[in-house]
Structures are given as C-alpha cells and as structure tokens.
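pipeline/complex-builder :: batch 7 item 3
reading input block
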Amino acid sequence: MKSLVSIIDYGMGNLYSIKCALDEVGINSIITRDSTIIKNSKAIIIPGVGSFSNAMKKIKFLKIDNIIMQHHFEKKIIFGICLGMQLLFDKSYEGKVTNGLGIIKGNVLKFKTNKVYKKSFNVGWKKIEIENKNKNKNNLLSKKDNYMYFIHSFYVKPSDNKIITSKSIFNGQKFVSSIKNGHVYGFQFHPEKSSKIGLDIYKCLKKILNK
Amino acid sequence: MIRIIPKLDIKNENLVKGIHLEGLRALGDPEYFAEHYYLNGADELIYHDVVASLYDRTSTLPLIEKTSKKTFVPLIVGGGIKNLKQIEKILKSGADRIFINTAAINNNKLVKNIIKEFGASTLVVSVEVVRNKKNYYCRKDFGREETDIEFINWCKNLQDIGVVELLVTSIDKDGTGEGFDLDIAEKLQKFIEIDYILNGGFSKLDHFLNVLNTCKPSGFAIGSALHYNVLKHKINSKKFDGNFEFLKTKKKFNNFSKLSIHDIKKFLNKKKSIEFRKI
C-alpha cells in the first residue's frame, strides 16, 4: 500500500474522473477526507472545479489545510489540478480577494476581455508549450507540444518564472498552464480528461511513485 | 480548434436516434459507441437521456460511471435534470458538465443557482429550436412541448445571466441529414457572444463549409452520421426494450455519409485550416 494516492474530497471537483484515470494507469488510489489515510499516502491530488473562496472555505472547515501543509513540509508529492492548483498559490482575485494555501508564491487572476476577445471562459482543447525544459526535469510532460482540455476563467501567475513547465494561449495572451516546484505539481488543464496524452502524465506520476 | 462532439441520445439504456427528435430507433449499447468515439478522437461526449423529462427520473447514473472508466475526455450529461441534488449525483458519477433545457425554461432561478453552486463552466444550456413561418421558437421536453419563447431572446437572456455555453439544436433539421440550419447559425453569430455548440442536420462533409462561412461555433454535436458509421462495422444491439426494427431490416442509411471523427477533422483541417489534435 506504499504508493497509495489520496484524492482529497473536500466536496468539490471531478473526483471520480481522476480516480478512473489513476485506475487506468494502475495507480492505487482512494477518494478521501480521512486525515489518517491522507497522512499515510505517498502523494495527494487536490482536485477542484468551482469558486476559489468556496473551495478554501470548505478546506478550512474540514481542517484539510493543515493536512496538506503537513504533507508539504514532509516534501511528499502534491498534485493540484485546475482549481486545485490555484489553491496552492498565495491569493486569488476571484470575487473578493481570498488567501490560498500559500505553498506556491504568486496570485490567481481573471482573464481580461476586450472588444476583440469577449469571452472570459477558456473551455476546450488548447496546445501546451513546454517551458524550462532543461531546468525542470521530471516535469511529467512529454516532449511534444500537445493539446490538453481546459475549463477555467482564472489563471495563475507565479512569482518565480523558473517553476513554469508549460504555457498556453487564450484570448491572444499567454498564460501558465502547468508548474513544478520540487515535489509540488500543478496543472491548469485536466490530465484525466485530456485523452491518452493526459493519461501519460499519470503514467509519469506512477514512475515517480514507484521509485 | 472546433470540438467534434458525438451526441448520444439514450432511452431505456439504449442508444437511440430519431428524426425531428421523434420516431426513435434503437441503435445499440451507448457505452460501446462512447468508447469507440473516445478512441477515434472525440473532443467531448454528450449523453442525453431523452425520456427522462417525460418520466421524471434520471436513470443514467450507472451508465455514466461505466463510461467514465473507459473514456478520458469530458462528458456532458443532460435530460430530465430539475435540481441541484441531481446535478451533484451526476457529477459524482463522473460527468464533467451537465445540460438543462426544460428546467431552465420552467425555473429561471435554477440557472443562477447552478452557476453559483457548481461554477458557470459546469453548465451548458440546451436550446431546442423549431421554425414557425419566419420566427424560431424554443421547445421543451425533448421537442414535445411548444413554448412562445423566441429563440434569440432566450439565448440573450441566458447570456446575460452568466451562461457560458449553449447547445443549440435545430429540431427541423435533426436526423434529416439536410445540413445545419443556416438561419439559426446566422442569428447566433449576429447576436450571441458566448460559446455555442451546433446540433442537428449534419450528414456530409460539405455541410461544414456553408455553416463555417456563416458562424463560429465552439463545437459541432453529431449523431446519426457517426452512429451509422459505427453500425456499418458492427451491429451491437443488446436485448433491451426498444424499436430495433430499423436495425433488423438492415436498411441502408442513404442520406448519410458514413464518417469517422477522424475523417471530419481531416476535412476541417484541409478545407478550413482548423487545427485538430492528433490521437
């Protein structure tokens, strides 16, 4: 049971889809909010769909923030997906300014709209361009530029550019689509919904877990 | 990139397809079709429980769970959804987004509540449109019930309250293979700023040319043309209740080019320089 991955259930997000993807690549995982199970797991996945402040409220109410921080101090793998990645940052400007977990330095901002680009939601498949390929080994991304599935209206802006592992373009602007800082991984897109290319990310995770 | 989205209409656990949303023919096991489409490059999948609003139930949960184990692209589920509790269950079963039509018309507050609770991107509002002389009106209950709601006014209303994507079905074109409804496409392009998926009428590749000269949809929902292509290769019918006469007679689906998703994407790339992701 050493490589057990906890998919953190704080009441938001596509937990079951992530579980299915992990099953598919052969990673032993559980959807849970039980602190003992989470503490004993080798990696945690923080999912999330919905509003930042709502998510932080639920995480704090369930006291899951403490468990995540403990996991972080022990340098065990943290995997944030979509809103789950955004929660790792210092603060978000979604609605009223809300503090996040502060594991990654930087902020969460809303896509700007203008006369040409009227949509504020990025829904659909976008290419990711790999960044900092040499500095960031084990970024879990394959070398090719590939399409991934996105569904969000906020994006992250890390203070440290070196942690960026890929960027994508929406409304004519480049934004950060994935990060890696040591044992912390973040993906703005949904690997579990990005077809075989997305599943490859979980396969890479499996290799790291088996090391 | 424009998403190519197979739309699977489901009745009593069978994949079905009708004409003008009527005369539903049973085509087989939806899970089989969904997996086939996933492997063939579908960008998203739609499950539509077409009798759910008639019988006041959602029976698709086990199907959603099974499908999530085999397909790793987003799944949009709709049909008969009336409240937040149902949505929670559907999402927990593995769906990524849901769509509503009847409930949005009957209860305007529901749309706002869904957006507040699950986020705007989780909701797609389905708009089923029928032409009456020169005007277009919305229908409820999978095209069974008329309303006096003018189609574009309704779309604008949905846009104003924060909906980010529509699924627009032309009932007149549905299942006919006559091509997309260009009037609807033109109106959407002129008046609507949010994303919309076009549905109804597609049967051959050239149908994309006119419609893409008229509007820029976020996706095309396709039923018959894809389903009949799969059937060409394999008749996969389970012993469920349903009208299987159509399959037994092995009628040829003459109106329809039998197309795979890959054929469609290659065509769009060649003729319209629309990017597509390799699988």
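note: Residues 192 and 199 of chain A are 6 Å apart (CA to CA).
queue -> next item
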